Amino acid sequence: MTVISSAGNQALNTLVTTTKSLTAVSSAASQQQASTAQSAAVIIGQTDTTSPVYTITKPVLAWERSSSDLMSSKLASNFSNAGNASRFAGLGAALLERFTTDGSSYSQSVIKQTSASQATAAANVAAQSQLHTKADNQINLSIKTASGARVDITLGSGDDGLGVQVNVSKGTLSDADRKALAGLAEGFQKAIDGLTAQPPKLDLSGLTKFDSSVLSSVDLHATLGTTHTQTLDFHADANTRSVKSTGIAGTVDISVDMSKRALLGTENQQKQALNSYLKQINSAGNRGNADDSLMTMFKEAFTALNSNYGDTATTYKSRGSEPVYFSLTKTDKNMMTGLADFTASVTQTPVSSTNPMRPDETDTFSYQVSQASTITGTSTQDRNITQKQQSHLVASYHESLTPGLKLNLTSDRNSQNYLYYQIDDTAESTTSVQYHKGALVSASVDQSATNSTHIQKYVKGALESDITTPEITSKTTDLLGKLQSAWENNAPRMSFRDYLDHQTLPDLSGMVLMESDPAVLKNH
After folding, report:
1. Complete DSSP assignment for 343-364
2. Does pLDDT of 3 surpass 80?
3. Quick check: 96 and 182 in contact, CB under 8 A?
């Protein structure tokens, strides 16, 4: 006897029930109950001692709601693919682009059921909730509007399900809100595509390009995978930007303080400083033998958070119970980096298994770089500006004695031919500017760079040499003296104050940029 019936919301499955007679019921039934085919659930019931029943059920696709809309079609198409990159392809953009025509909440999911016992309303609701809240692969975008409304977008994927959800709360969305939300579609999708790439990337620049008068903040959180988990926490608003991402290779952690907009420079000035920092990050990665993919993520995130600052300002309000308002001039900005203050670090996952004979020789990489600025004084006429840049590199790694030869250290002493590097570098640049009664009375930059290279050479397991090489350079540049020289050469007939206020000044911003290489700093 053969019975065919439909199951699931979309009648996508065929249930085939076949009754067979067996002579050895007890042993055959128990063996069959213990085995399950990959694409079928096998359930054995027994109507009498001679006629067991085999129920074979193919997978059923259960939908959370009617699946006739375009988003559901996209979900169905993506669900047939494997891997997060294919599963989430285009979904983030589609959810934000939806705001061009619809400002309401939305929820949809598709679940694959592989046994008849799963096909219950309670089981479906639990699986749908899991996809929207605690899926194996979860991406959450949270946006607050300036008017007070909140939009939460969730994408969830697991082995047996794919779901999306849009929740609009704490108010309704205006036309301007909906337009701004849709404007983030491309940036959101690029961030998703980067996170799900192999190796992962941090393409976040599109999420910093929003009008803070319409959208007050953007937050992106992601957790991908259950074994080698990749996580991301991103935040952006008018005053702060931050990102922290952790994965198998290591951790990237960056925070940018844009509250001192009076110190932000021109676009060219910012580009010059950004390129200088990226060059030093590259140098640190090469010198410390860092993981290329991790350093790429660090540079991508550093660039994204230090780009698209928006409007600058000329007035700075100090903190405190009685704040002081300082007006900064083009002369002040000309002696700064032009970038917002920040702290940034990248830490590689340590490896202690490189040399089984000496497990204390760990392969490590850690790099921190920062900028901090202060504006103090009693008024604009009597103000002091200090901007400090710092970097610190600590790394250790093994290298073959033969260039280009892959290192393979074992417990055999004959394999123990290598160099073990330990790196410890620091750099600093501090710019100080002082005004008294409205006149520029002091401006200088103190710079230093220290590199320490410790190399141990082993031949057949024996230490053959142990050398530490330090390099130290420091210098001070009189910025006020350079401005006075330019004034004397170009406009000696006007007062120095008028020259600073009205004439084109020599670009001093490049002179204050930190340099981590002692040899370059010495000849700069």
Report:
1. EEEEEEPPB--S-TT-TT--BE
2. no
3. yes
